[in-house]
Amino acid sequence: MDLCCLGDFRTAPSYALRLAGVTVLLDCGLDTSPLSHFAPRSAVEVPVLKTPGSKELCSSAGQTADLSSTSGSSYVCPPVLDFFDPSSFDAVLLSNCSYLLALPYLVKNEKFRGRVLATQPTLQLGRLMMEELAQYAEGTGDNSPEMTTRLQHLPPEVQDAIRTGKFQHLYTMEEIADAVQRVELVSYGQAVDLFGLLEVTPHSSGSSLGSCNWLLQTPFDKFVYLSASSQLTTHPQALHQAALHNADVLLLSGLSLAPTFNPDNMLVAMCEAMASTLRADGNVLFPVFPTGVVYDILECLLSYMDNPGLHTVPIFFISPVADASLAFSNIFGEWASTNKQNKLYQPEPPFPHTELIKMGRLKFFPNIHDTAFNNAFRSPCVVLAGHPSLRLGDAVHFMKLWGGNRRNTVILTEAGYASPATLAPFQPLAMKALYNPIDTRLNFPQANRMLQELKPAQVVAADALLQPPPTMPQRSDLCLDKTAVKCTGLSDGEVITLPLQSVYQRAMLSLEVAGSLDFAECRPSVFAASLSACVMTENNQHQVVKPGDERPWQGLVAEVKKQATTSADGNAAADHSKMEVVEDTKPTSTSGKRAWANSIAIEPLREALARRGFHQQVFKTTPNGYLLTLLQDQHDIATVTLEDGATHVTNLDASSDAPLAVIHEALCEQIRMF
Length: 674
Description:
This protein is of the alpha/beta class. The strands form 7 sheets. A 7-stranded mixed β-sheet has the order 8-6-5-3-2-1-22. Strands 9-10-11-12-13-20-21 form a 7-stranded mixed β-sheet, with no helix packed on it. It has a 6-stranded parallel β-sheet with strand order 16-15-17-14-18-19.
């Protein structure tokens, strides 16, 4: 099994996995951090920020020295797929709406022919997030000659990233539509077969509507992709972890970006800061994504604002996809928590914002240019708008409009952007800024407890998760506990090979072969039988049939396990088997071969033969296994050849079949039953 990290494991995870001959892309996250290298682009034409001291602040935060020279650019960083031919991906598994934003970059490549699997909420809410980004980026002029000249003002490392294609322009609405059409919808617990080699199943992860962890299984191997998960009781369906136990390998990703901040405490602090600002006749701005945590924020705000003095304050949700986002939250009620699902049968909407929209307390608009917004707008108010990076979208306009008044407040709730660097272009800033990250995903203590419950044989995680942060080396609670589970580190762009214990594949016995088996009791309640047959493979399904029998296989009688062929690159071969066709010899024959379906331990076999009188043995190692020659009175009487996937017994004594019977008994004693 090979695994490679292609994206930022913190905010835009993407992993390439090769398992059982199938190459799978786990998530397709989009890194929007390149937006921070450019000045904010306002939705309304206003003078570019040129405030004293902004140059120094932005340079210290990794921004350009002259932000105005690159205002309006919309570069992002998709996964690094240069190491792979797009045609090599057999499937793409998407775990939540935040981790599919780079899908258009993959789908627009004509070589990509793989399947794309996601739950319906993941697809639809992810589509809304992509459409919002694309509409914010429209008209930025990135391809104009003037922009090419302006890019010379960027730091050298950013210029190199743009020239080499690491940073790319945002996609168009047409490219989003093409990507959405390629996605196949799946439900929780629905097993999907990939070429007869691998079975993949999504299970609820509890972090957002439709989010999931993926279980990848062969008949004998179990791989778990533990993506962004939450054990807290919020609006999505609860985390389902029963099917994730005892995995051979567990890939851990999507942990909380704010592990030291308790989400409940952050919600309380957020509401208190909002109430304090509104009572002082100020305005509150929330730069947010159009889906996800915004549903919890809205529910919390709406219940908190029932307090005296706040119930008349309007809440404005401004986004090109605000209408669709609020509608989908109710449409996908069956993907929500149990309490919200119960409301569907009463009947009433699962989320409270539906009733508050009817009452006029919550208003949504596509943008600030909307005439209805201009008619409805009044102050003080609460505004939720994008983009949380504060480089694109309507939130930029409100930062410039309200930034000079100390009575106003901006509350940064998205964990990936709750830092001083987000506000650097707006300095000096008079309005109050509250860094209030709300991240419901697993923190390190929760992840450690969960791993101990799931008991995987091996855990793979990013190197940074296996050691404390460099700024807090004494905080051992801010990393995974390597003493509790076996952990393997993975760095960006690194390919690691993880050996799986199982070397077997499943084959089905035909009726004819099963009926011809003559079982002998090796030890109490354990039976074995010799087998002369061949293996037919069709659509990666193995069938054990009589030699020369080419009739279609009918009916399932029994299951046996055969050793898988190992190809030169170490992967299990999917199209051929080494279980060879052998001559069917009757017991009265003077010579012949016997093929056994199970592997034999050589040393215990030699001891078993010695106990039965074969003390003279000649043991040799062959390129394919071992050769054991049995002697009596210095004469060769039989040979036992042990090869990968087969055991051959040859009787050299023409006068008696007694050696075959003794060897048969010894082999039955040693054969491993599964």
